[in-house]
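Subject: sequence -> structure tokens, single chain

Hey, anyone have a minute? Need the predicted structure for the following. Not urgent.
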Amino acid sequence: MIEPEHAGLTILRQCQLVGISRSAYYGPINGENALNIGLMRLIDEQFLETPWYGSRQMVRHLRRLGYTVGRKRVRRLMARMGLAAIYQRPRTTIPHPEHRIWPYLLRDMTIDQPDQVWCADITYVPMRRGFLYLVAIMDWYSRRVLAWRLSNTMDADFCIEALEEAMTRFGKPIIFNTDQGSQFTSPRFTTVLTGAGVKVSMDGRGRWMDNVFIERLWRSLKYECIYLHAFETGSETRAGISKWMAYYNTERPHSTHGGETPAEVYEGVSTIKMAA
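Reply:
Had a minute. Here:
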């Protein structure tokens, strides 16, 4: 989809038009051999089932599957994937020591309308010969995915691009909630929010359950799309995710909303209320 020699459009502009970060254009991260890529997929699949598994338990799981692995290796792979057991820290990323941590604003709040609270999260996406990272911006009440981006690095750029797209298309929320990952605590990310008058909220220690809705999104996406297709390239992965996201938003009934889709609820059809 990207033409490097295009006379009228830069690579950056072409990436923006097709909905990927510039870093994703250059392909998946290199540096891991085929065995490690396979182990990372197995770790990811098991983590969806048992998110309380740390490196010690994950080593036991992999050894039961017949792999001779050590804890140091598994710990490194989990860190590269952005995974950490829920009892160790509230979410899967490590705060940047120089970034401001914003207060948690959702305690005891009733969330009963679209655009009241948005949230964001990052997940690891395995491919047949590599992996990418995916960020999604979700409306908390309706569970609609407002924007998403793929990247081959865990920098803040692709998160900012997704946020800017969501705000361009859908306006802005009252509150934007994330974990304390360095991508979201980055001043470049939070400035986009504060500059638009959005209140920034971040999960505190022990608040990992606050992202349970978007964790359910990751689980559904991986079992219904990613693991079924084992995409070869970044472009194939993006096309597959794009198709599934459209299905999720507009066709997939959501039990919480009485069988309505996230898009229907976001557009004001549902009257269901839930508390934070």
